Amino acid sequence: MVELKTDTSIDEMYAAGQVVGRALTAVREAADVGVSLLELDEVAHQVLRDAGARSPFLGYRPSFAPTPFPAVLCASVNNAIVHGIPNGYRLRDGDLVSMDFGAELGGWVGDSAISFIVGRPRAADVRLIETAERALAAGIEAAVVGNRIGDIAHAIGTVCRAAGYGIPDGFGGHGVGRHMHEDPSVPNEGRPGRGLPLRHGMVLAIEPMLIGGGTNGYHAAPDGWTLRTNDGSRAAHAEHTVAITEAGPRILTAR
């Protein structure tokens, strides 16, 4: 069931989204060669504390997970696509890092992700991240009243495939509201004009995930959470929480 949010609720979700934006900005600024993923998790956790917010990630345990998620930040490095668990790994020159973060404030959730390079960038990684951001922008542009979920999916998939990248099978965006994951599902590839009609008050997490090698396959790491590319190539992830409004898409997690 899809819950339509009131304009007041969307404003409250914007407040939660701004906590997310501040945290991701702080994490990116702190990320440097030699900094550990656990240290970055603490940076994000401190932003939550300062805002009086809580983490929808910490302790989250969906049906596929062997254990509750132990951190407030998903930190995925190089060939990790999503759901990386922060650990003692210290960032190295040239690492491609994807950070996914959520915050709950006043009973509403915001969810967003960024990808960036630590130290000296490789041209292939820059192109991969730029394409993820373009795919996100295309998905958001399609998130208008009168369109359908398939229009968002098609916009994202078109950008990714045209650049020669893979899209992880079965993973995409979702509704957001009182809970981090709500209906509807928002695929990263699909047919235009298909799926649920977009209405004023729908709030979606739109999140393209790209596999640099061009294949779609992935596997779960031994921790049961981290998803890694089957071909060993690098991956990028970009995400915003977006409200569908009569005035156009409103990015609630803008940084």
TrEMBL record:
CDD domains registered for this protein in UniProt: MetAP1
Protein name (record): Methionine aminopeptidase
The encoding gene: map
Pfam families: Peptidase_M24 (PF00557)
Annotated organism of origin: Streptomyces albiflavescens
Necessary cofactors: Co(2+); Zn(2+); Mn(2+); Fe(2+)
GO molecular-function terms, A-Z: initiator methionyl aminopeptidase activity; metal ion binding; metalloaminopeptidase activity
Keywords associated with the record: Aminopeptidase, Hydrolase, Metal-binding, Protease
The UniProt record lists the keyword Cytoplasm: no
